[in-house]
Amino acid sequence: MPSLADVTRGRILFGGDYNPEQWPEEVWPEDVRLMREAGVTTVTVGVFSWAMLEPTPGAREFSWLRRLLDLLHEGGIEVCLATPTASPPPWLGERYPGTLPVTADGTTLWWGSRNQWCPSSADYRVHALALVEDLAAEFGHHQAVRMWHISNEYGPVCHCEESAERFRAWLHKRYESLDALNAAWGTAFWSQRHADWSTVIPPRSAPYIPNPAQVLDFQRFSSDVLLECFTAERDLLRRHTPHLPVTTNFMTLYKHVDCWSFAKEEDVVSLDSYPDPGDPRAMVRSSLGQDMTRSQAGGPWMQMEMAAGSVNWRGVNRAKPADRLRLEALQAVARGADALCFFQWRASRAGAEKFHSALLPHAGADTPHHRAVRALGRELGLIAEVVGAKVEAEVAVVFDWPSWWALEQRGRLSDRVDLEPIALGWHGALWDAHLTADYVHPEADLSRYRMVVVPNLYLASDRAVQNLTGFVRAGGTLVSGFFTGVADETDTIRPGGVDERLCEVLGVHPLEWRPLDEPVPLGDASTGTLWSEELALAEGTETLATLADGTPVVTRNGTAYYLSTLPSPEYLQRLLASAARAAGVQPALPGLPEQVEAVRRGPLLFVLNHGSQPAVVPLPAAHHELLTDRAVSGDLVLPPRDAAVLRPL
Amino acid sequence: MPSLADVTRGRILFGGDYNPEQWPEEVWPEDVRLMREAGVTTVTVGVFSWAMLEPTPGAREFSWLRRLLDLLHEGGIEVCLATPTASPPPWLGERYPGTLPVTADGTTLWWGSRNQWCPSSADYRVHALALVEDLAAEFGHHQAVRMWHISNEYGPVCHCEESAERFRAWLHKRYESLDALNAAWGTAFWSQRHADWSTVIPPRSAPYIPNPAQVLDFQRFSSDVLLECFTAERDLLRRHTPHLPVTTNFMTLYKHVDCWSFAKEEDVVSLDSYPDPGDPRAMVRSSLGQDMTRSQAGGPWMQMEMAAGSVNWRGVNRAKPADRLRLEALQAVARGADALCFFQWRASRAGAEKFHSALLPHAGADTPHHRAVRALGRELGLIAEVVGAKVEAEVAVVFDWPSWWALEQRGRLSDRVDLEPIALGWHGALWDAHLTADYVHPEADLSRYRMVVVPNLYLASDRAVQNLTGFVRAGGTLVSGFFTGVADETDTIRPGGVDERLCEVLGVHPLEWRPLDEPVPLGDASTGTLWSEELALAEGTETLATLADGTPVVTRNGTAYYLSTLPSPEYLQRLLASAARAAGVQPALPGLPEQVEAVRRGPLLFVLNHGSQPAVVPLPAAHHELLTDRAVSGDLVLPPRDAAVLRPL
Amino acid sequence: MPSLADVTRGRILFGGDYNPEQWPEEVWPEDVRLMREAGVTTVTVGVFSWAMLEPTPGAREFSWLRRLLDLLHEGGIEVCLATPTASPPPWLGERYPGTLPVTADGTTLWWGSRNQWCPSSADYRVHALALVEDLAAEFGHHQAVRMWHISNEYGPVCHCEESAERFRAWLHKRYESLDALNAAWGTAFWSQRHADWSTVIPPRSAPYIPNPAQVLDFQRFSSDVLLECFTAERDLLRRHTPHLPVTTNFMTLYKHVDCWSFAKEEDVVSLDSYPDPGDPRAMVRSSLGQDMTRSQAGGPWMQMEMAAGSVNWRGVNRAKPADRLRLEALQAVARGADALCFFQWRASRAGAEKFHSALLPHAGADTPHHRAVRALGRELGLIAEVVGAKVEAEVAVVFDWPSWWALEQRGRLSDRVDLEPIALGWHGALWDAHLTADYVHPEADLSRYRMVVVPNLYLASDRAVQNLTGFVRAGGTLVSGFFTGVADETDTIRPGGVDERLCEVLGVHPLEWRPLDEPVPLGDASTGTLWSEELALAEGTETLATLADGTPVVTRNGTAYYLSTLPSPEYLQRLLASAARAAGVQPALPGLPEQVEAVRRGPLLFVLNHGSQPAVVPLPAAHHELLTDRAVSGDLVLPPRDAAVLRPL
Description:
Three copies of one chain form a homotrimer. Chain A is of the alpha/beta class and 649 residues long. Chain A has three domains: 5-158 and 225-358, TIM Barrel (Alpha-Beta Barrel), CATH 3.20.20; 395-583, Rossmann fold (3-Layer(aba) Sandwich); 596-648, Immunoglobulin-like, CATH 2.60.40. Helix content of chain A is 33%, strand content 18%. In chain A, helix 16 links the parallel strand 12 (451-454) and strand 13 (477-480). In chain A, helix 6 packs parallel to helix 9 (212-240), helix 11 (282-297) packs across helix 15 and helix 12 packs parallel to helix 13. Chain A is globular, with a radius of gyration of 26 Å. The two termini of chain A are 36 Å apart. The interface between A and B is large, with 54 and 57 residues.
């Protein structure tokens, strides 16, 4: 199989989305010249070109793209060629209204933006695949083209009748019989029993709380049907261009698709990462996305999109200082990226994203902004030896999409218990403790890890439960957050409220869930938030912290820890650091100060100071610093927002 | 007529909803055993069983229910049998799409939750009534069955064309002529005059503020059309089982249906009561609902649903401590309940309410939670002598649904002036003053009360006005809140702005309404909120409090008090206590401390300490305390959240 | 052409909307008597009378209106006769469903409120115009009728298919070719290219950010299509009654229609002004609306609606003290109004606005409220010599609807950067500096002004840019707010990010936009809010203020000032006062205290004390005060909320 290494060939890819159809062709040569000057290696072309490539049904206007690819190739710029199927042209919706998505309340979503396609629509698929096939035939062997970028940020959801048909087929395959479906969905409750497949529909607007298992299966289906669209395109492309790797771009903590299932079908795993310059903990969120993507890739991965400056879809879109941009880029490389691409090369003068930053801003090349971009291009060249190297982690964090979907259904005990803040809370504590972690599917092989962390796994399959309990029985350290192992795969609550096998390993049994609306004090200055439980402790289970009334809240049973609340960050950091130490896991460097991130990738050590104060990092040995090309030893002093990339001497 | 006494027969009923279709039949005998051990007398069966009883159109699957009823009967558990018409099966909506409700903006509400039925739909009624009739024939004479529970928490509203047809028929009956309708709706305003009945429709989405009289009549119609559904079922049941009482369950401060009109059609009045464990004043809200239900019942009533622990439909659903559960249960009995039922017996493992607590929790019978349930069952047995006894009140609070509906229309002077906080404010002041009150319809006979309280009666019919003024003229004490008597039954403002007859009795005439967005100081440390008025005072009207600028805000004219604001709780408590004293009304006991609730029911005196401190309650005579079976006299010391049930020795 | 002077004839018109169809005819003579006693000169009749005038399709019921006009004429009350086309009767929507507006998400807006008409509907227009023509023929020469009021507060927007048709025709006229439209809309972005006119539609609900240029053009179209409705009525009326002036009523900072384009088509420009009694800066907002209306009128104008007391469409609708009402009325006259009309004469007893105040309140004529109305009527008689006089301003503020629409599209850099707060911020600073300003279209002749202020002009046409730069080159003083000159008429960003010609005149070039979510300190105690920029300064450009890091934020290049932030009010007031002084512009009086508004209109000087303390206003010469009929000189002492109207002696 082709891989990212076939594209990088020893270089960190640098570039971004390039949408030249927005400018007159006279601008293109200037673009290529400026790209070269900025160190750009690779651009992604054609993500939104469907209407230009197929202006009317069945037409093919490929000549402009050929001229463009030729020009890029002459200029030494390589191309990640996109299939343009994320944004159909207006004519598709007009001629085939069934391709337009319909919301749960029956509202049609029209053209005039992007993404207006129903993933179940046969008409959509026919037209998308025909164009993809012709593109592959026409350009798959063009010398500039090194990789395929399929569609974009998969996410459309549709509740139309054709979607209902496909949903029924998917359910039929999953459950085989209507009785099994009725059992799985618990339709005995509220008189929802289906006597005929024809009454099985997507969850649509309803008078009250919808059936959570139906919603969960529709989320599974919606992810799977998008994956079906992806693999259909991929299979076509592979037939034409078996030498070219394919990818599609994920987003950090993106709920619409199960990235584990997508990653398995890709040659290259890639991520769009947009940390918020206004968020002082943005590096926690971005590192979570990067660690997750690396884990899905099983090695080097591609940052497909990031912003050189502000985005345009938050409330207040803060500008991004140059030193922050540099830290974000180095953080991605440190955590396994072999490619750093941006949305987009040249800022759009029109359209819905004309205020999104670009490598080349509205104000042009002679600006501090673009000079920072060029400096970044240069620096990536200085650390190219990292390409292909792996990040090795001894800690794994369990993350699962179906559990996420099930956790956040309506009718739950607390609408504040969302997975995202919990995942960020736990990941932030690992980050604060300077512990690098992989992410794992709950049924993945855990044998190479010393410690496994489960921020929350509300829904756990039998295999997941066996996986986790087996890991502990084999000597592994498990740290589990609250409300884990509660439901089985059909979102049915386990007998007793929580899976008994898991309870046995953890040495606790929750008797009652007690959501919190205010933080409560733990033993010391720390607090617990979101949740608490009435816990029955097994013989031998140790209490590490209690509520004021003595209720155990953090427990340890051998190497298995349980937390019935989300502690404040400092407490969680200390707990994880201590559990890691006990499990034989050390941070990348001893004695790291706060706000400093240190990650080992292959032989290199990345040290990033995210703080606003200079940081002193004690180095245990002498190193060569690649960005400044100098030897360092003893105390490495890093100015605020500065970084070092160190190779042992 | 059959009544609740036919069911209680000297026992306080104890039990709850039992939905055994959710479990394999093997579980049922265990359920019956555990029910017996917990002291359960009665369970409600079949509320959501339509799809199990009629799995396909016209089919009848009654055998499982017969086996269940037999089993319950053998186990000594009595049954309140529900008609399952609150939640039609999916096939009804699929085969008869007109049974699905449509919102004001045209959105169809689908199956997949519950309540998806249009109360005006002939197809719905045909199918619902056919099943009800067959159930009555089949099970109406089963020995286990003691009572009928019709539908559940009536509430569906629909704006479809069939609803429009029925709305027009309702209006035709109410107004007879289109001219009368035009006059009542004030259609001369904004060019809304109807020249033909065909243009008369439910209020649907519109560009701006809808016609408030049209909206009000649609709310009246929506309540009446639900009542029509109720009485249609009831009449069928009465034909088959004249010996069985029927009920349907209300909710506290539930806006959808006019409970006065429903209560008149029931044999037993019942209430679903869900005080929020996170609300320190929850006992005020629950006592309001209980006093209202008792007043509607005219005697003992049934608490059809309550929660043994948390619910699952608030934002953060707090757990419920056992002492709080006990207080809630005793409060209901104190205020007239002869039945305490819970939603539900056994916690659901699947479906939209699987996180709602139950008598038997997920964690099973061997839990503190279930032990508290059993203890409650035992204690209810100790106070069974209360069954059938009446609560006598000398104070009445006026409450009216049409006035509520009219008050909260769009286009009003302040969107903060909702009836619920006002009603709770006044009821809370009565509670704080240890005064037990009935609730009354504004046109009800008031002659047996000494004091009548009107928190707000924005809309008052001529009969209501005459009723209130006649009460004062007959020597009664009237305490009226602001913005009362403003509109007539068609939501037309009375000439002069407020009904002149009422003004005469109160000795005040509001010249201008002055809503408040901030509290304003009254004379002392108290404040007024929500509202103020420019008041003209009649000769002889006394000013009891003023705003800082001297504007009168609380007045007294003989035995008629008027408040042009909502005072802070302490002020309102003092005012009501003083007006009550002057009217010869005393609390249940003299010298009651704060946070202690004391209610007399028949010969028994219930004393509940809702506070977190021990309370000392001076008893004027020796009593027997039923829960502890001991004699008490002098100072009764009640620990926090403890209660006593006292019979004079 | 007829004008407002033909109606005023030396009097300040005083009156309001009169909707007598809401009362029995017996009430009418009392109305006329009370009007006379209150000094009412003029009432607006028939705004919402369509259903009374045409109760069934094609019917004409004009006799009641004739009786009314006769009665008013006999009583000496003149009439502004309305075309009733703002609120069609229910039958229009029922018989012609295509006349009902459809929202972007496909929801139909029904009758039952008002404004339920699609401005593109041919059926609507046919029926509206036929009625208008008949009204004109019947009543255009009635002696009572002095003026036409066309429709009411134009605003309906529709996304239906007929609207799409008319939108396409409008676009065809604007762009001629589809290529030009594609270029203007930037459809190369996100694959939105149209290959056929049939796919061009209004912006409807879509999966993500809509095309901003499409939205902008739809807003232009929506304003133009309403104007088309207006001019169609106007042309009919002019044919019948060339002697009568026509108007329609605007609202302050009303986004739906481009008032510049409407004003050009009117004989009289009129405004509905509803300052919030709860807003301590309400006089800033009202003066902005009045200055804008005066500028659109080019002379005296008409305040068509205001409230004598509270309105009923805010959250909490505060009552209006009498002194505040008087100040509001005098402020309007000071700023050019020759007519003061109210919504409405007599408070409605029913309908959606029954809680809106009126000249004659629910509580009747013998109330403080109505006595204040009568006092106002008397005082307007005392200052009638102002009628026809002009307000002369040396400062102009640029305001543009398309720029407003474009600025606030989705996908922008900060959703807090709305035009309204910015416009109010700048206008408030001018008000605080006691500077009276006109408002101007960005392409208007600026030669009569010394100073031009541009709070924001995000979208600036080439002609607007040339106009502003030419003004500076001719010696004028320009003060420009941030983010001005960014986009051209198609909402395409100017090359370089900001128009180069404007940058040259201002001596600054913004290199990066940096929205703020928190205020930042400027040099002194002031702060900047909403926005900042990285600025490149040209040779000779002076820095007047910087951010803490030294970034220039307020600059001056000769007579051209630039502000890259919205400074706190005091700073902006000082800057504008200083720039005005330098430009030779003085306030109406020297030494005016805070909270005092002074405006010269013709020979008269209006001085209004909005403060809660007495104000001392030093008069440079002796004056006659018209309201008190006395001579004043030296220090004029004005009690709180009092006013003086001064004529130099």
